[in-house]
């Protein structure tokens, strides 16, 4: 009998492999068609699966299924977030005195999109690059008495990273509760990873989306791009800046890469704490007690502005930033300024930006002249003609690479934080942004963007068309893969 079975398998194993491949491909293709809400994503995945049934189905299993949005941990995260957000009881009724009448409808949109209320009493200080940001962070860490929470995408093991490790170690020795959360992918940007140094110094550190045996394969394409520092629940830092020496002026005084970060005080710090606590609990299963990690009263300096956090990610908040930007571009009446290192908006956002320009709104888009990601730069270039031909002005900034993510509307509303205008930030990354209703803050950000424009080169349709065909073809091919760059 055994010999007969062996002979049977030897003769018919190709048929079994074929049937298994067919079943796997059919199952994956049906799942993609039934669960993808974007028709382009559904077509793309079904095409990959059909062209390479076995590999395509396996690749879809790893990178195509959004488990975070539906699992029980996602529900626990939402429950934890609601606990913190209900403690914030100072919502703004009308944003018109702080910004402009057209933003009343945007506030209504934000109330439905964000888990947090729009609160007054926040002081927000703009910090330019690492020369201002890292010393301010270290000063706050050295003044901590109860708790420090730090979350970042990249935490390099370099001179600036080690300065912050030293400050955290000093806090641990003083008896301060310290938690550090680093993205598993971002932790590998420097060798050796700084996580080993943090742990040797007694700093409790965890990696987001990993486990002791290595990467969680079902979540391998998902990353936490959030940047948060909270000290004693009263002082917060957030924005787009990772922890890297490249954003500071070095011993040789060469121009450093640019970025923008924000120091915040007021009720919005509680919202930052809520986001960090749910990410920490999601990663470690440790709940952070309110009495140590949160502050009950704030006395921020003047001026004070309405603001709120908007979290987004491949969970229940997957389209939060997408919805906010669509709404913001729709209410614009005079100007839209966008600065982004990676400008790859999807069709819906492109339509909103182009529609604004065709309505007569002045739309300025500033991107780096020299990008740190070559493939992203190729993909961006392939798409620029779509906004320029509709009346938008695109500028390639000269000078050092600028990593800032800044948007202002009509000189009265601002959207800042960790999100890039690309598919990864809008759909795959866990991001954190702040919407700010303040003419003064919008004016400061506009001045920064306008300074970039003054030292920038305008991108024209003629210049794009004059590129060699081989380069234009290369750019278009790379652009096809833009959702996963």
UniProtKB/TrEMBL annotation:
Q: Per its UniProt record, what InterPro entries does this chain match?
A: Cardiolipin_synthase, CLS_N, PLD-like_dom, PLipase_D/transphosphatidylase
Q: How does it sit in the membrane?
A: Multi-pass membrane protein
Q: What class of enzyme is it?
A: transferase
Q: Which PROSITE patterns match?
A: PLD
Q: Give the EC number.
A: 2.7.8.-
The biological processes this protein is annotated with in GO are: cardiolipin biosynthetic process
Q: Where in the cell is it found?
A: Cell membrane
- What positions does the domain PLD phosphodiesterase occupy? 220-247, 398-425
What is the protein's name according to its record?
Cardiolipin synthase
- Recall the GO molecular function terms of this protein's record: cardiolipin synthase activity
Which SUPFAM superfamilies does this chain map to? Phospholipase D/nuclease
Q: What is its main location?
A: membrane
CDD domains reported in the protein's UniProt record: PLDc_CLS_unchar2_1, PLDc_CLS_unchar2_2
Q: Name one GO cellular component term.
A: plasma membrane
* Keyword rRNA-binding assigned: no
Write the record's keywords in alphabetical order, separated by commas. Cell membrane, Lipid biosynthesis, Lipid metabolism, Membrane, Phospholipid biosynthesis, Phospholipid metabolism, Repeat, Transferase, Transmembrane, Transmembrane helix
A Pfam family in this protein?
Answer: PLDc_N
Q: Which residues cross the membrane?
A: 12-30, 42-63
């Amino acid at each position: 009998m055994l010999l007969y079975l062996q002979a049977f398998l030897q003769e018919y194993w190709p048929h079994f492999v074929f049937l298994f491949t067919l079943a796997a491909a059919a199952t994956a293709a049906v799942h993609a068609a039934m669960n993808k809400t974007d028709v382009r994503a559904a077509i793309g995945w079904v095409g990959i699966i059909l062209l390479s049934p076995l590999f395509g189905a396996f690749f879809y299993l790893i990178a195509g299924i959004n488990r975070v949005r539906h699992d029980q941990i996602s529900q626990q995260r939402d429950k934890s977030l609601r606990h913190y957000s209900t403690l914030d009881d100072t919502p703004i009724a009308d944003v018109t005195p702080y910004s402009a009448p057209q933003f009343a409808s945007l506030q209504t949109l934000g109330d439905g999109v964000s888990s947090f209320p729009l609160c007054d009493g926040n002081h927000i200080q703009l910090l330019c690059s690492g020369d201002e940001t890292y010393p301010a962070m270290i000063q706050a860490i050295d003044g901590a008495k109860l708790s420090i929470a730090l979350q970042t995408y990249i935490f390099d093991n370099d001179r600036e990273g080690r300065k912050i490790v030293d400050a955290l170690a000093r806090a641990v020795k003083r008896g301060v509760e310290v938690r550090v959360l680093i993205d598993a992918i971002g932790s590998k940007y420097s060798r050796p990873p700084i996580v080993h140094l943090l742990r040797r110094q007694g700093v409790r550190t965890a990696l987001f989306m990993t486990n002791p045996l290595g990467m969680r394969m079902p979540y391998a394409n998902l990353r936490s791009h959030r940047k948060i520092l909270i000290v004693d629940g009263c002082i917060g830092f957030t924005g787009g800046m990772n922890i890297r020496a490249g954003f500071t002026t070095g011993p040789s005084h060469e121009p450093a890469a640019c970025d923008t970060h924000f120091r915040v005080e007021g009720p919005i710090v509680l919202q930052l704490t809520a986001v960090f606590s749910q990410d920490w609990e999601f990663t470690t299963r440790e709940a952070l007690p309110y009495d140590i990690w949160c502050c009950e009263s704030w006395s921020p300096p003047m001026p004070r502005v309405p603001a709120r956090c908007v979290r987004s990610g491949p969970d229940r908040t997957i389209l939060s930033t997408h919805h906010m930007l669509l709404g913001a571009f729709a209410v614009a009446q005079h100007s839209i300024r966008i600065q982004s290192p990676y400008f790859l908006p999807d069709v819906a956002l492109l339509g909103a930006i182009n529609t604004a320009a065709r309505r007569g709104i002045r739309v300025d888009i500033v991107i780096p002249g020299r990008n740190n990601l070559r493939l992203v730069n190729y993909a961006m270039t392939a798409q620029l003609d779509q906004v320029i031909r509709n009346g938008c002005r695109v500028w390639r900034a000269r000078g050092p690479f600028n990593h800032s993510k800044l948007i202002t509307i009509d000189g009265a509303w601002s959207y800042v934080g960790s999100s890039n205008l690309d598919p990864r930030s809008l759909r795959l990354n866990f991001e954190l942004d702040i919407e700010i209703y303040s003419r003064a803050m919008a004016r400061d950000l506009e001045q920064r963007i306008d300074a970039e424009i003054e030292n920038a080169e305008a991108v024209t349709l003629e210049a794009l068309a004059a590129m060699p065909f081989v380069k234009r073809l290369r750019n278009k091919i790379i652009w096809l893969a833009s959702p996963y760059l």
